[in-house]
Write a structure and sequence with these properties.
Helix content is 62%, strand content 0%. It has 11 helices and no strands. It comes from Micromonospora ureilytica.
Length: 253
């Protein structure tokens, strides 16, 4: 059973407590300048350069010119390191909505900001999600997303559900885009040729009598177009926000 605090909450890992300022830094060891932030920054550099699979305590120690065991004075496990990498990888939230923004504009800006982070650092998509966010930057993102919905008719639980819906959509779109890009690179196909080649392949495979709806899509030229992934993202995000708007209006009525 996981350890709990006096109020029944889970005990935070020491490294997480340290980034919240709840724990004193470890006493100085043989490596001057070693700290939780320097370790996490080094791990993020490895992930940025070579992907998440390249991140290990030994690789990070090598980046810092330190012994692997020295890292464990500051970060208790690789799981702790991954949590901190996500916090640093996301970075600061886009900030609260601008005074002139309505809820929809603010949420769209918030979603686009997360989309850009995941596009720039696709390794974040490979970090296992082991629980709700508990680190400073992640909770900052949550705070700013919730503030976009201030003044709406939604209940507080509904606001959280809206954020979960949007961030799930953003992550799914980012995962699809990243995996398709990896697949096209591995196949030696130019991204601009991927959809037209797919359309030609499907046209060869299907019988219009068996797949009439798909045949109509092909006849309209949809699968032959070099789609802009951003267009697909905008379409899906707009439909989600349309649904949120309908809920807000229903609550107001």
């Amino acid at each position: 059973m996981a350890a709990k605090t006096d109020d029944g909450g889970p005990v935070l890992p020491p490294a997480i407590e340290s980034v919240w300022g709840l724990r004193e830094r470890p006493p100085k060891g043989p490596r001057p300048g070693m700290s939780v932030p320097t370790i996490v920054d080094a791990a993020v550099r490895v992930a940025d350069a070579d992907g998440l699979a390249a991140v290990s305590m030994s690789r990070v120690a090598k980046e810092l010119g330190a012994a692997t065991m020295a890292l464990y004075r500051y970060v208790g496990s690789k799981d702790e390191l991954l949590m901190l990498m996500v916090d640093t990888g996301y970075g600061p939230s886009p900030g609260p909505p601008a005074a002139e923004d309505d809820w929809r504009t603010g949420l769209a800006r918030w979603a686009w900001a997360e989309h850009e982070v995941l596009r720039r650092r696709s390794w974040l998509l490979h970090v296992p999600i082991s629980g709700p966010p508990i680190t400073p930057q992640q909770l900052g993102w949550m705070e700013d997303g919730l503030r976009c919905l201030d003044g709406t008719t939604l209940a507080e639980g509904e606001k959280m559900s809206v954020l979960l819906l949007i961030t799930g959509y953003v992550r799914n779109e980012a995962t699809l885009t990243s995996q398709i890009a990896e697949g096209t690179r591995a196949a030696g196909v130019e991204p601009s040729e991927m959809m037209p080649a797919y359309g030609r392949l499907v046209a060869r495979l299907i019988d219009p009598a068996r797949f009439p709806a798909l045949h109509r899509v092909l006849s309209a030229g949809v699968l032959y177009q070099d789609d802009n992934p951003d267009d697909e993202f905008v379409f899906g995000l707009d439909r989600i926000l349309d649904g949120v708007e309908a809920l807000i209006q229903r609550r107001a009525g």
